[in-house]
Every structure is written in C-alpha cells, then in structure tokens.
Amino acid sequence: MIIKVDIPENKVANFSPSAKKELEKHALRVTEEIIDEASRIEASRRLSDTNSEITQSVVKEAATHPRMYFSRKKNWGTKIVQFFAFISTFCSGLLFDTDKFNNITVVIWFVVVIFVAITTNVYLTILC
Fold it and tell me: How many domains does the chain have?
C-alpha cells in the first residue's frame, strides 16, 4: 500500500535535503508503529475463530495509544542505572535488620545503600 503525504513547501522551506530525508524516514517509522499497534489491538480483541479486520477506530486508538510514544530503546547507561537500582534496593532490604542496628558499621552501610537505592530509582522515574 502506498501512502502519500503532501506537506506544503512553506513548512519545509528551511529544510536541507538530508533533513527532508530524515523527516521522511521518521514519518515512515511512526506509520509502521501505528500499523503494528493497530494489529496488536485488533488481535487482542478478536475471537480466536474469526477473521481479522482493522477498523478506523482501531487505527485511531493505535495512533493515540501511549505505548507508541514510549517505545524508545534504552541505552547502556540506563540499563546500568537500572541494575544498580535493583541491586541497591535488594541489598538495602537485606541490611534492614533492627537487631543489628546497634553496630554503627551496619547502620552506615544501610544508610549508604538506601541512599543509592533512592537516588537511582528517582533518577529512573524522573529522567528516563
């Protein structure tokens, strides 16, 4: 299926040829994501013994579905922060023993580990 999009020349007057190609590439990517999301939505609603049919409302829902906008791949830095968030949260749970809080070393380690856990989790929640 060929989809043609006409954009007025005044909208892209300052675009270089490479910028126009990049815009075309991203428009194609977004279109493919909408198609994939519409297929997933339709498949989740279809009965097992019926034929597949994607309607206008399914396409409209796929285009406005929030999942489409959050499908960015995570870089290695985010994965490393997620790993530290998991490990520090797990270790803070292991260190939380009120009977051992009489030892100042355990308390210091607990405070440091819980600080790392809170910081990494807040970073992942707000910035990523």
Answer: 2
